[in-house]
């Protein structure tokens, strides 16, 4: 257990409660490693890591270990976009063909506001994307040297709905949004994340999950037995060989969706990222950006809560406002929940894709412990 801050005696009881919640999560779920952190307006006030960051080398997890964010990457992308808007580099309601004039006709009138709220009509993953017998294997097994190679995965497919007409979750929509952002800024997306978020927010662990790069303290990714069963059922040609509780994740290259599911962070940094959105002297976004991000733009439905710009905006069972996003990707499950009225940001992650399944209730319990 790690405590930050000066008032450690006052925080000790809260931290013991939080540690029990963390231990229960690890015990109740098939998870090799679990990392959690909480930040307030000023600093990280609690962090803990349990289990093994690497099973083969028997390496204990620490708060400094870096985890895959999955779709929590979308919250980072949305904050980059909001900062670009306030600097006049990006217009949310202009047709994206302004920046990408060679797009197929059915995408040209789509806007960034639609893409960032999953209303762009762009499809999400389909069985063909996960077909190991396809040329190059699944989309996660291929190398991507150019933007056009990524666009070719989905850009010519029919829209699943008219842009702006309905919410339909799409990581490919975020890939398209990232290419608009690149064109508007004149630099690549990974560099945008570094310049707009990692450096000004002081998040040294924030990076792309580049599979060929040596990333210090990146946890090893695993599949649980349940995930292996899912893979066998949904991915033609998959070979299911599991000796023990976990299996190594095969090559999984998220370069086709850096913006939607491809970033990494240590949990203290993810908690800091969330806290940077709070109003106050240590905030890293301005009031205009906060309004852009957290004003609900969609209605609640059976598909999910209302959406701000890339963030989910609703209230927990106790009626407390929260801004949040969760993610699941091969070798990683992550969650970020910000309670603006409590001044708390709660981050957690594991190194399997599907556990813990429920991340909101544990986050609410952690909020109880520190409020």
Write up this protein.
The protein has 371 residues and is α+β, with helices and mostly antiparallel strands. It is built from 12 helices and 12 strands. It has a 7-stranded antiparallel β-sheet with strand order 3-2-1-12-11-10-9, with helices on both faces. A 3-stranded antiparallel β-sheet has the order 4-8-5. The chain has a two-stranded antiparallel ribbon with strand order 6-7. Strand 9 and strand 10 form a beta hairpin. Helix 1 runs antiparallel to helix 12 and helix 2 packs parallel to helix 6. The longest helix is centred in the first third of the chain and has 21 residues. It is globular. The chain starts with 7 loop residues before the first helix and ends with a helix. The model has no long low-confidence stretch (mean pLDDT 94).
Shape call: globular
Structure summary, number of beta strands: 12
Q: State the distance separating the first and last CA atoms.
A: 19 Å
Instruction: Give the count of helical stretches.
Output: 12
The helical percent reads 25-40%
Gyration radius, to the nearest Å? Answer: 20 Å
Strand order of the largest sheet: 3-2-1-12-11-10-9
Strand content: 15-25%
Major β-sheet, in short? 7 strands, antiparallel
Chain-averaged pLDDT = 94
Write the H/E string, N to C: HEEEEHHHHHHEEHEHEHHEEEEH
Low-confidence stretches: none
Structural class: alpha+beta
Quick description:
The chain is built from twelve helices and twelve strands.
Helix and strand layout, with pairings?
Layout (H helix, E strand, L loop, with lengths): L7 H21 L4 E7 L4 E11 L4 E2 L5 E3 L4 H14 L18 H4 L3 H5 L30 H5 L19 H15 L3 H13 L5 E2 L13 E3 H10 L11 E3 L9 H4 L1 E4 H9 L11 H8 L17 E4 L5 E9 L2 E8 L4 E7 L9 H10 L2
Antiparallel strand pairs: 1-2, 1-12, 2-3, 4-8, 5-8, 6-7, 9-10, 10-11, 11-12
Helix pairs in contact: 1-12, 2-6, 2-7, 2-11
